[in-house]
Design goal:
Strand content of chain C: 25-35%
Radius of gyration of chain C: 21 Å
Helix content of chain C: 10-25%
Bound molecules: adenosine-5'-triphosphate, magnesium ion
Mean pLDDT of chain A: 89
Low-confidence stretches of chain C: 1-12, 117-122
Structural class of chain A: alpha/beta
Oligomer: heterotrimer
Helix content of chain A: 10-25%
Distance between the termini of chain C: 30 Å
Largest sheet of chain C: 11 strands, mixed
Strand content of chain A: 35-45%
Shape of chain C: globular
Low-confidence stretches of chain A: 427-432
């Protein structure tokens, strides 16, 4: 696919050896791979036609948050803001926290650089995903978050990846590497936003050492024209716990691959996700949970509402390796189709090579529950309003599961807005 | 206020109500008793307009309107309230959000101004207190994970906030401990007024010890086979429904 | 079921594994246009059918075998297979059962399928396909009285060419897939059924397929047409001798259910699965599909215990409004067997309904995959699907997979899919043993319970047989 990489994308910026080596390897892998077509099983329902053009490097922007239409979520804690892939010191806020080290690759000290070099790419499956290779190939900078052994980050860490409007072909490559050391604990929120056309290739790697607990959210609040091909790859060692939460609004084409590897016994993953699509938007979530060892658990729930001419793809694979006995894994994917021109393609998959396991999955494409609708109407709520409220509830149920209160508070009004639900009550005051 | 004439209704092709007549005037409290499966809940659902219930014959007039012509929410706007025997759970929509939407809609239809948020929350909290429900329930999803008794109290709380004209309580007393029963009773009694009527579906005479009915009806096989005053309930309690079988049920 | 039949069913090995010593006319291995011309000429076929076959062959040569299924087997050498084999005695087709070679009749007696009408399963008409040709069809007169046509497809080509020409390939087009194209080119025989308007077929119809010759492939073709308002229940059984080589079976079954018609198609597939080391066995690559018109219903029930490799997706195209599709399946794999089976429900008409109940049982080192597609098209207003897929694993060396594809383009449809995986629990085993059952008996009992929902869809005789088959197939799976 050499023709899709213009010379401009050659990482001209000086880089340490380990980074340069990674770029070269990524470039080689990208060039030798084929752009997947719809004949490729994993891309059956997603056409990459929109990407059939040479990519250029994104340009730096000095616009203010206001000019950028950047609404910074106030989740408290450190916040690193990148615009078009370039760090914006003026918009960022770093709170000192003895439990963590938070640096950009470009400013990593020697020992940090050694850790980055050791872990970067260690959980991304080789050449399996061409876009991971592309991310490597053009890797300029990235963020490294290390949560120190036995420590607990006091406040959430926020990464804001924002795009200003650009020609379609400008590519933003973003990279986050989180190393949660033994028995550490932290919360990380990635926030993708932007205006107009943009193409983002965001790759996240999470490494959870034994006993580590990490809450990670990836919020896609990009514009309806945005293109995003991204991935989340996680490795969980013994007794590690990952709460991974995904939100996708909009996007002309969004393809997110989520791969969670249970590598140590007793690891647990709660994976929740939602997609809300309108217009001509297209979102494709491919999730894969690898149960490589015994006694691990997975709870996965994805929900979506798809209207207008939008289309959603969900593929949820659970792979139980031989000997991964006593696994418990559950997956649920529920979809609401709200228009005659919208489309949902879902495929929950189980691949099981061990017998003493409890695995189940369920998928539905249906309407809102009639008895709920009736209940609301008996309370005087008109049918159309009741539908709005139930749609909101259908999605909000996943938000309510998230532990970070400021995140819930950030998302709920946005959801209500999206559905046009007249939720005058800020339920936070309700208990008071 | 409510006048049901020769009502026949079926569910999934099965005849459930087979010629039911009932007259409720303003301010009256009626109790309906009857064996399991006799059609008591069906009556409530038919009155509230639940989809899937087909009326094959008869008429229902409510406050001078042809009730059967109205949508479910229009019936609620008129002041018809059904406390469900099995309230449905709605995860993701908080009780508070739900209550506000409901009260706003009903008030708007009646031409009353919407409560402001603060005022509404005060009322909601008061209602919580009245039914002895912790305020934390306002933040939880509607009925989500509520115990049987908590669901019943939640129904009652909605009734208090909506101030309906006709309250149908479908076994709101079932599954309640004795304290909760009193909560329900005092809630209902506090709401009793000249212009508000009640239709209580119950299996137990004990509820009627607390809420004194003007009339007691026995519903069997889709029809009211006996009506009387509160002494009928006592008699039923003592003798069971089979006592009626011999003569009354054709 | 006679005691003898039962004894045979629970015999410890593949009971149908004997060979029959019969002189046959077998075409030497190889596949060219001449092979096809030979088959067509042998059957005295009309020109259009030869052309149709040759067209299919053209298409097939351009195609590659499917590689997406979760099965793994050495590439099939299509030139090493013989595409036609016929018992010598069939040269002059028997006019009646009395003329059928006694050896052949004895074969079917051994298989538990008596062909003499007086002894035949009460009320079941049987067509028997031995290697490439149909050898006998029973109860023909009785069926003819009701206007039901039941004969081999070769006969149908001669006697009812218009019906065959109209419907052949109408549900499974020649270029549908690699094996369907191959079958269209070389199909030898199979059954043909036509039920006239408004007729309820007076008895169950049944076909038994048997591969006897070594190195032959069996490419049968079945066509069932249920005219408006008619009803038919059809059973299919299959066996093959034990041979060390793999044998290919690539059948095509087409069902046409016209308005208000109902077709119930049941299969008990017990092709030779190969031995415990995975040597030999049948490659069962089958295309089965039904087309349901308005208010019609097509129901597939299958019990798959045999074959080394199974690749099979009996499907329904629910074209007519209110049409109904059903798929009930038990697939059991043991030793080194591999199965990739499931169904497709294509909802096109309004208010179409489909139900899928799939029970996969994996034992030994086998691999068992459910693969299904539920598609609700933009025109399928109010369509509804319910799918339940359960897997049972016996032992820690086997594999169970579920690959359901759900595609919806209609906001008024409801599609629900659920899948679970379980094992025969130690507690269950313990309870059974405590009640005096040996472990093997206990497992087979539990497995039978697991499959109950599907067995109850089978006609009576088959349900008993299916239960026994599972027991035999599970042989040696519990330590
Ligand atoms: N959706 C339905 N489909 C079929 N039958 C139904 C349906 N709903 C109710 N029924 C039947 O209608 C009859 C009356 O039911 P209903 O719920 O009105 O009884 P009930 O008098 O309220 O009984 P209980 O005292 O147990 O609450 C029962 O036989 C019930 O099984
Ligand atoms: Mg009831």
């Amino acid at each position: 696919m050499a023709d899709l990489l213009t010379p401009q994308l050659n990482a001209e910026t000086p880089a340490p050896d380990w980074l340069q080596a990674r770029r070269l390897a990524g470039r080689a892998a990208w060039e030798s791979s084929e752009l997947p077509t719809r004949k490729t099983e994993a891309w059956k329902y997603t056409s990459l036609f929109a990407l059939q053009q040479p990519f250029m490097a994104a340009r730096e922007s000095a616009e203010s948050a206001e000019e950028l239409g950047l609404e910074l979520p106030q989740l408290a804690g450190s916040r690193l803001v990148f615009v078009n892939g370039f760090w914006r010191e003026d918009l960022s806020e770093i709170e000192p926290d003895a439990a963590i080290e938070l640096v950009r690759f470009s400013e990593a000290d020697q020992s940090q650089a050694a850790l980055i070099a050791q872990h970067l790419g260690s959980v991304v499956p080789g050449n399996k995903h061409p876009f991971s290779a592309l991310n490597d190939a053009v890797l300029a900078d990235g963020v490294f978050l290390r949560i120190l052994k036995g420590s607990k980050a006091a406040r959430p860490v926020q990464l804001v990846w924002h795009n200003s409007p650009q020609v379609d072909a400008a590519i933003n490559s973003q990279r986050l590497l989180v190393l949660a050391e033994q028995h550490s604990e932290a919360t990380v929120v990635e926030h993708f936003s932007g205006q107009g056309h943009s193409f983002t290739n965001g790759l996240t790697e999470l490494i959870l050492a034994a006993g580590a607990t990490l809450s990670h959210s990836r919020l896609h609040l990009e514009s309806a024209e945005a293109l995003h091909v991204g991935g989340l790859h996680a490795a969980l060692e013994r007794d590690a716990t990952l709460n991974s939460f995904h939100v996708a609004f909009g996007g002309k084409l969004k393809r997110i691959d989520i791969v969670i590897n249970h590598l140590g016994q007793g690891a647990h993953c709660q994976l929740d996700g939602m997609y809300l699509l309108r217009g001509q938007e297209h979102v494709d979530y491919h999730t894969c949970i690898e149960h490589a060892v015994p006694h691990c658990t997975t709870d996965e729930t994805f929900r979506g509402i798809v209207g207008d001419k939008a289309s959603a793809v969900f593929n949820g694979r659970i792979h139980i390796h031989p000997d991964a006995q006593k696994t418990r894994a559950e997956l649920s994917n529920k979809n609401l189709l709200t228009s005659a021109t919208a489309e949902v393609n879902t495929k929950p998959e189980l691949e099981i090579y061990a017998d003493d396991v409890q695995c189940a999955h369920g998928a539905t494409v249906a309407q809102l529950d009639e008895s709920m609708l009736h209940y609301l109407r008996t309370r005087g709520i008109p049918a159309d309003e009741a539908l709005v409220l139930l749609s909101y509830g259908f999605i909000n149920a996943l938000v309510e599961k998230q532990r970070l209160e400021s995140l819930r508070d950030y998302l709920k009004p946005r959801l209500a807005d999206y559905f046009g639900a007249a939720l005058a009550v800020d339920s936070d005051d309700a208990g008071g | 206020m409510l006048s049901i004439k020769d009502l026949h209704a079926e569910v999934e092709g099965k005849n459930i109500l087979k010629g039911l007549n009932l007259e409720i005037r303003e301010g009256e409290v009626h109790a309906i008793m009857g064996p399991n499966g006799s059609g008591k809940s069906t009556l409530g659902h038919v009155l509230s307009g639940r989809p899937g219930y087909e009326i094959t014959q008869g008429s229902v007039e409510f406050l001078g309107k042809d009730l059967l012509e109205l949508d479910t929410e229009e019936r609620a706007h008129l002041g018809l309230f059904l406390a469900f025997q099995y309230p449905v759970e709605i995860p993701g929509v908080s009780n508070m959000e739900f209550l506000k939407a409901s009260v706003d809609a009903v008030r708007e239809s009646q031409g009353a101004s919407a409560y402001d948020t603060v005022g509404f929350m005060r009322r909601a909290r008061e209602a919580c207190t009245a039914v002895d429900l912790d305020q934390a329930f306002l933040k939880r999803g509607v009925n989500e994970g509520f115990s049987g008794g908590e669901k019943k109290r939640n129904e009652l709380m909605q009734m208090m906030l909506l101030e309906p004209r006709l309250c149908i309580l479908d076994e709101t007393d079932s599954g309640l401990d004795i304290d909760a029963l009193q909560v329900v009773a005092s809630g209902v009694n506090a709401m009793r007024s000249e212009s508000r009527s009640f239709l209580l579906v119950t299996h137990y005479q004990r509820l009627l010890d607390y809420i004194e009915p003007d009339f007691v009806h026995v519903l069997a096989d889709g029809r009211i086979i006996r009506s009387g005053d509160k002494s009928l309930a006592l008699e039923l309690e003592a003798k069971g429904y089979s006592w009626l079988d011999d003569g009354e049920v054709a | 079921m006679s005691q003898e039949q039962i004894d045979r069913a629970i015999a410890k090995d593949y009971a149908a594994g004997f060979t029959t010593d019969i002189e046959s006319d077998t075409l030497p291995p190889g596949l060219t246009e001449d092979t096809i011309r030979f088959i067509s000429a042998k059957k005295n076929e009309p020109e259009w059918l030869l052309e149709w076959r040759l067209g299919a062959f053209q298409v097939w040569r351009e195609m590659v075998g499917p590689d997406w299924a979760h099965v793994d087997y050495p590439e099939v050498d299509f030139q090493s297979i013989s595409y036609y084999s016929q018992p010598k005695s069939m040269e002059d087709r028997p006019k009646s059962l009395d003329e059928v070679d006694p050896e052949l009749l004895a074969t079917y007696e051994k298989l538990g399928i008596p062909l003499h009408e007086q002894e035949a399963l009460a009320g079941v008409a049987v067509d028997v396909v031995f290697d490439s040709v149909s050898v006998a069809t029973t109860f023909r007169e009785k069926l003819a009285e009701a206007g039901v046509l039941f004969c081999s497809i070769s006969e149908a080509v001669q006697q009812y060419p218009d019906l065959v020409r109209k419907h052949l390939g109408s549900v499974v087009p020649r270029k549908d897939n690699f094996y369907a194209a191959l079958n269209s080119a070389v199909f030898s025989d199979g059954s043909f059924v036509y039920i006239p308007k408004g007729v309820r077929c007076p008895m169950e119809l049944s076909t038994y397929f048997r591969i006897n010759e070594a190195n032959t492939g069996q490419f049968e073709r079945t066509l069932i047409i249920a005219d408006e308002g008619s009803h038919v229940s059809y059973l299919e059984g299959c066996t093959a001798p034990m041979r060390d080589e793999n044998q290919l079976h690539a059948a095509v079954v087409e069902l046409v259910a016209l308005d208000d018609a109902e077709i119930k198609y049941s299969t008990v597939q017990n092709w030779y699965p190969g031995d415990a080391e995975g040597k030999g066995g049948i490659y069962n690559f089958v295309t089965k599909r039904g087309l349901a018109h308005t208010n019609a219903k097509i129901s597939w029930t299958q019990v798959e215990t045999g074959s080394a490799v199974t690749w099979k997706y009996p499907s329904c195209i629910l074209r007519g409004d209110n049409s109904v599709g059903e798929f009930y399946s038990v697939a059991l794999t043991n030793n080194l067997q591999q199965a990739d089976t499931g169904t497709k429900m294509i909802h096109l008409g309004k208010n179409t309904r489909s139900t899928i109940i799939s029970k996969g049982i994996s034992a030994g080192k086998s691999s068992n995959a459910y693969r299904g597609l539920v598609r609700v098209g933009p025109t399928a207003k109010g369509a509804r699907n319910y799918t339940q897929c359960d897997s049972l694993l016996i032992g820690d060396q086997c594999a169970a997979h579920t690959f359901p594809y759900i595609e919806s383009k209609n906001p008024t449809g409801i599609i629900e899919h659920e899948a679970t995986t379980s094992k025969v629990s130690d507690d269950q085993l313990y309870l059974c043993q405590q009640r005096g059952l040996d472990p093997e008996k206990a497992v087979s009992m539990i497995v039978n319970g697991f499959c109950k929902e599907v067995f109850k869809e089978l006609p009576m005789e088959f349900a008993v047989e299916a239960g026994k088959l599972l027991e035999v197939s599970l042989e040696g799976s519990v330590g």
